[in-house]
Amino acid sequence: MDDATLAALRTGADAVGNLGFATMAGTLATRALLGDAASDWGVHCLRRCRRTFTRAAWLTLAAALAWMAAEALAMTEAPPLEALAAIAGIVADTPFGRAWAVATAALAVALALVALRPRRAPALRTLALALAVAGVAHACAGHAGAMGIGWLAAVMGVHVLATALWAGAVFAAVLCVARGGPDAADGPRYAARLSTLATGSLVVAALTGAAGAWHALGGDVAPLATSTWGRVLDAKTALVAIAVALGGFNRFVAMPALPHAWPRFARVLRIEAGVLAAVLVAAAVLANGEPPVA
Question: 212: domain CATH number?
Answer without folding.
Answer: 1.20.1630
